[in-house]
Write a structure and sequence with these properties.
By secondary structure, chain A is an alpha+beta fold. Chain A has 21 helices and 36 strands. Helix content of chain A is about 25%, strand content about 25%. The relative contact order of chain B is 0.10. In chain B, helix 1 packs parallel to helix 4, helix 2 packs antiparallel against helix 4 and helix 5 crosses helix 10. Classes of the chains: A alpha+beta, B alpha+beta. At the A-B interface, helix 8, helix 11, helix 13, helix 14 and strand 25 of A face helix 5, strand 1, strand 4, strand 5 and helix 8 of B. The complex binds zinc ion. Zinc ion (ZN) binds next to loops of chain B.
Chain lengths: ~800, ~350
């Protein structure tokens, strides 16, 4: 909210410099910043009288004027089309500096010296109006300082109000806060003394007012003003509205907006000609059409509160008036509405219609039900003063009294929560300064009733917060609590995720963080079928419309992006949640780790799949380290195979027989879609499943007493034999074979066409005795025999 | 040859070997070995002559022969060691070796800067005794708003633009605060929790991302005060930003805490003197905090008359942007390797 210092000063003598004022308000929870300081910005800007206007000798479009600015007549060159002799204008004299940074010097314009400038509103920083010079009231004296006449030397603040402080959405509200912190009493602004109070509930002749929906409209007042002449508002009003971000319209509408900015209570002016019969506050009929004064037509839902006459809707209660009954240039008689509309109901209407206004913004946050009359009086006075209106009858329908409840503050409670020493006297002082009515009971309990504008005060804790605000948060001493203890069984997944992350980083992978939402086309093109995706109802970007069911699409996208940036070899991983529908109207989410790597191999160029096996090694390392268990990599049955991976280059990742993930090489046609033309391998595994499979801490076993022996053996087999089966056969040949490690794979000309050689290093050990060479020979013999039977393997010569 | 007195011959040989020069290199050593210990070397020759030595002289001759052999073998052994040592020293001294060739171990990758900052913060609070909890990212309105004291149709909901999901009674959580409710319902009081995670708001520009990360922290116990909240956060900023870091509390509003506060830390970039980043104020807004609202305790099944607590929440991206000097939040989610490699 924008706040004018001069306007605020009309309501309270706070004696604070602007920066101090901002600091005080901020310390109260009204975050305030100075946005514009125009003090001293209008030195040497004075009132001038245009004496004559003549042609410029060297130019057609600009003219020479003589202006009386209090002393010798000045020659001023002026380009404005509307300049005329006899006008009272604003003159920036030589030496003046204007808010837009312009410094006035004596200078020649097309050969003629100009002793200043006649200003437009834009040049004075008042509005955007720059098509002509600003014409002032003829009552101003030549030479008078403009700033004091037009209150130009204002300071503007931006007050960032939290949603609970609707009571501060007006100058009066801020003045109350300033009063509380400074102890100064709010002034009743002088103009109010001259407001003729309407006769209480005198009624308006010929116009009934009936509130049918008291829930939506607890209070409704209507004031009759007749004989107005619609015209622009005086300069001061227009300036204040503009400074607060509201466009001036005319002296009637401006009065309602001005009173709103001042009190925080929105108002609406109807042209009485268009009200047929009585004013009725009622719920709309289902499908009832209503056109707002900006020309938009809405079909209303049943019950949306409407201000209507006997025939039609006149205004959407608390939101916007109708096109059918607003103030027109020829309007003379006004019905001025000031009301209290229910915050929740107003918000519901505003949300449903997608129509938010200055008015609905304030009603949603709660206006002062007891401030309704003041707002009405201020607007009415402006209409009488500035538009020549006459105040008539007044109706005050208040079917549902808004009564703040008394709240108890237990003795010592505030100090206990804040951690400060507070005596009841201090507590009473603070609350009283904020306008609470307080009783101090014999039991030490304070019973406090909030002022009518504080809708946010509902319970004891709210009183404590008020006390804390005035006591000052900076006066609460810092202490350290003794934290409750917990056992480590409460911790798990986050730590495991970090461990997996660290292992992957140590394996050379860079962590990526992708959005959880993806483009469905990415998923469809990968043929991801595991789980129905969760769709988003609203989105930041039309394409990213569903939650990811897998980390793969995002990682492929990232891979593709980086390849386009010129990267050649990439290893990326991500850990994060994936989501899917879970039957009915529920959704599930899982924490997974996924990884992508690409680079070494061109697609189809190698049958070896080095990347695949390197990744397989990394996965095994990670599972082994993070779960203390040896993973298996089983082939997946046909229906469990991933369509976006090579048919034969994919396996599951299992732990103790339970599948926790998969890995494989991305199908070239799938990679194509992402504009990736290199071999890509990936894995994905469930961190939840990994966590569930973590083995117990190992129990130490004795170190073997007898040394083992090492043997190497190279077998020649058909090139389509799988190493996994051969290793299994070898390990099964004798219980003393403790390790079998493949260390070479060769399929060149030396072993013959269609064949390959696999070389293994074997380790034998007997727990009971030292093994002999003969033992080693025997084991090798049984290995060779079995390998020949099962795999047709022969010893490489 | 046999005519000569063998003992004399041995004595003369003993004299000869006792004054042998120390061989300077392998060539001299080989010559020495051949001359004395070779098949036709002097020591071999005298050994063969031993059988001609009269019995009476045998003991002395045997002793002399042994002394000669020991002397020569000792010399050879010492020379071998010395020559080898000299050769190794010389080789090491004179070799060419390129230590500037790059290392060949696989390079490390790196943690994402958001993870790094998040883990750092979690570690600080873990060290104080907070337990780590996580909650779901798809949340119900009940946990994301209602139990946190956001009534339906309250303007406070406008503070957080919500992503709604189709066909499920869920939203993407807008903050990590629902973990307060979930943890209290799971463990009851007392409790000290730190809850890191992803959150979502329908908002995107240079400083707002539709997905970002928060850390929620809260303590529920008897006699917890706002002073405890201030002390805990002061301890945190000191650990995170350094000994001189100060905090400032300003009243603010979050429905689930009361009194509520915005917390500023003295600007770490300019030492609180005022700079572009802190907009010349000397302060940086880094988190929101307050005392857990009694309605929140009740909603989580904890008796607000018996227990109280404080809570705070901070945005990781903001801290990471300040820490690493990143000025556009979108860089965190583009995953450009040229960015990621910097961390
Ligand atoms: Zn700074």
């Amino acid at each position: 909210m924008r706040l004018s210092l001069l306007w605020l000063n009309e309501w309270i003598d706070h004696g604070l410099a602007p920066d101090k004022l901002a600091e005080k308000l901020t310390s109260l929870g009204l975050e305030t910043k100075i946005t514009e300081d125009r003090r001293g910005a209008f030195n040497n800007v004075v009132v001038g009288k245009v004496l004559s206007v003549g042609p410029h000798p060297n130019a057609d479009a600009i003219r020479l004027t003589t202006v009386n600015a209090g002393a010798e007549p000045l020659t001023i060159v002026c380009g404005a089309p509307n300049v005329a002799a006899g006008q009272t204008v604003a003159v920036a004299l030589v030496g003046a500096s204007l808010p837009n940074g312009m410094k006035m010097e004596k200078r020649k314009i097309r050969g003629v010296e100009s002793s200043g400038m006649i200003c437009s509103e834009a040049e004075l920083g008042i509005s955007a109006e720059s098509s002509g010079i600003m014409v002032l009231d003829d009552a101003f004296d030549a030479g008078a300082a403009l700033s004091s006449l037009l209150e130009l030397e204002d300071v503007m603040f931006e007050v960032d109000l939290t949603p609970n402080r609707g009571d501060c959405l007006g100058v009066v509200g801020v003045a109350r806060e300033v009063a509380a912190i400074t102890g100064a009493k709010p002034k009743v602004p002088p103009l109010l003394f001259r407001v003729p109070s309407p006769a209480p509930a005198s009624g308006i002749s010929g116009l009934g007012v009936e509130v049918k929906d008291a829930e939506a409209c607890p209070r409704y007042t209507a004031l009759e003003i007749s004989g107005v002449r619609v015209a622009p508002s005086p300069f001061k009003i227009r300036r204040r509205l503009l400074a607060c971000g509201i466009r001036p319209i005319n002296n009637v509408v401006d009065a309602t907006n001005y009173a709103m900015l001042e009190t925080g209570n929105p108002l609406h002016a109807f042209d009485r000609r268009f009200i047929k019969g009585s004013i009725v506050v009622r719920g709309a009929r289902a499908g009832e059409e209503f056109t707002t004064l900006d020309g938009k037509t809405f079909r209303l839902e049943a019950g949306m509160p409407l201000i209507a006459d006997s025939e039609k809707g006149l205004a959407l209660a608390g939101v916007m008036g109708g096109l059918n009954s607003g103030v027109l240039p020829d309007t003379t008689d006004i019905i001025l509405e000031a009301a209290y509309f229910d915050p929740v109901i107003t918000r519901r209407t505003s949300k449903k219609l997608g129509l938010g206004t200055e008015s609905s913004y304030r009603f949603e946050r709660g206006v002062d039900p007891e401030g309704v009359k003041l707002a009405s009086m201020i607007a009415a006075r402006m209409m009488t003063e500035n538009a020549g209106g006459k105040q008539g009858g007044f109706v005050d329908a208040y079917p549902k009294k808004i009564q703040p409840p008394p709240i108890k503050l237990r003795s010592g409670k505030a100090g206990k929560i804040l951690g400060v020493e507070l005596n009841p006297g201090r507590e009473l002082d603070y609350l009283t300064l904020l306008g609470f009515k307080c009783d101090y009971g014999a039991d030490g309990v304070i019973t406090a009733t909030a002022p009518s504008h504080r809708h946010d005060i509902k319970g004891e804790i709210d009183l404590i917060e008020e006390i804390a605000r005035l006591h000052g948060f900076e006066n609460i001493p810092e202490t350290l609590p003794r934290l409750p203890q917990h056992d480590s069984s409460r911790e798990g997944r986050y730590a495991k995720r970090r461990e997996v992350n660290r292992l992957l980083v140590a394996s050379g992978f860079f962590e990526a963080v992708n959005y959880s939402f993806i483009n469905p086309d990415w998923r469809r093109n990968l043929g991801l079928v595991a789980g129905e995706p969760v769709q988003m109802e609203n989105r930041i970007n039309a394409e990213l419309s569903e939650l990811r069911t897998s980390l793969v699409p995002g990682l492929l996208k990232t891979l593709s992006f980086n390849l386009r940036q010129g990267e050649e070899k990439l290893s990326l991983f991500e850990t994060g949640s994936v989501f899917r529908m879970a039957g009915g109207d529920s959704a599930e989410e899982f924490m997974t780790a996924g990884m992508m790597t690409c680079g070494d191999e061109e697609i189809f160029s190698s049958k070896l799949g080095r990347d695949f096996h390197r990744l397989k090694g990394v996965v095994a390392n990670v599972v082994r380290a993070a779960a203390r268990v040896e993973p298996e990599f089983p082939f997946l049955p046909g229906d469990a195979k991933k369509k976006f991976l090579y048919g034969h280059r994919q396996v599951g990742i299992s732990v103790r027989g339970t599948q926790i993930g998969y890995m494989g090489q991305v199908h070239p046609l799938s990679a194509d879609y992402f504009d990736v033309h290199l071999g890509v391998v990936c894995f994905e595994l469930s961190l939840d499943a990994l966590l569930a499979s973590v083995g117990k801490a190992p129990k130490a076993r004795p170190i073997p007493r007898f040394p083992g022996i090492k043997r190497d053996v190279a077998l020649v087999v058909s090139e389509h034999s799988e190493a996994g089966g051969i290793i299994e056969t070898m390990l099964g040949a004798d219980a003393r074979i403790r390790q079998c490690r493949l260390f070479d794979l060769y399929n060149g000309p030396q072993v013959g066409a269609g064949l390959k050689s696999l070389a293994f290093r074997l380790f034998f050990m007997d727990a009971e005795r030292t093994m002999t060479d003969k033992d080693g020979d025997d084991i090798i013999a049984s290995i060779l025999k079995l390998a020949k039977e099962k795999h047709g393997a022969v010893l490489r010569g | 040859m046999a005519a000569e007195n063998p003992v004399e011959r041995l004595l003369s040989l003993k004299g000869e070997v006792s004054s042998l020069p120390f061989p300077a290199d392998e060539k001299e050593l080989d010559a020495l070995r051949v001359k004395y210990l070779g098949k036709k070397g002097a020591v071999s020759v005298v050994s063969q002559e031993m059988r001609h030595v009269p019995a009476a002289q045998k003991p002395e001759a045997g002793r002399l022969l042994q002394e000669i052999r020991t002397a020569v073998e000792g010399l050879v052994e010492r020379a071998e060691t010395e020559i080898k040592r000299n050769r190794v020293l010389r080789e090491i001294e004179n070799e060419f070796f390129d230590a500037t060739l790059p290392g060949t171990a696989p390079e490390f990758g790196s943690a994402h800067p958001i993870s790094a900052v998040m883990d750092e913060i979690v570690d600080i609070f873990s060290g104080m005794g907070f337990q780590v909890e996580e909650g779901p990212e798809t949340e119900s309105d009940l946990y994301n708003f209602e139990k946190l004291n956001f009534p339906p149709e309250h303007p406070a909901r406008d503070m957080q633009d919500t992503f709604r999901l189709t066909g499920v009674d869920k939203i993407l959580r807008t903050h990590t605060s629902p973990v307060q409710i979930r943890a209290m319902e799971k463990y009851g009081a007392p409790l000290a929790v730190i809850a890191p995670g992803k959150v979502y708001r329908c908002d995107a520009d240079v400083t707002h991302s539709p997905m970002f990360h928060q850390i929620e922290g809260f303590v529920i116990d008897k006699d917890i005060t706002m002073g405890d909240l201030k002390g805990t956060l002061q301890a945190f900023v000191r650990r995170f930003y350094g000994q001189d870091a100060k905090i400032r509390f300003r009243p603010s509003f979050f429905p689930f805490v009361e009194p509520g506060a915005e917390v500023d830390v003295s600007c770490v970039l300019c030492g609180a003197k005022g700079c572009r980043v802190c907009k010349n104020s000397g302060w940086l807004e880094i988190l929101g905090a307050g005392m857990v609202h009694p309605n929140v305790l009740s909603a989580a099944g904890v008796d607000p008359n018996a227990w109280g607590g404080f809570a705070f929440g901070l945005g990781i991206e903001r801290l990471a942007m300040l820490k690493y000097g990143v000025d556009d939040i979108r860089l965190f989610f583009e995953n450009d390797m040229r960015f990621l490699r910097q961390f």
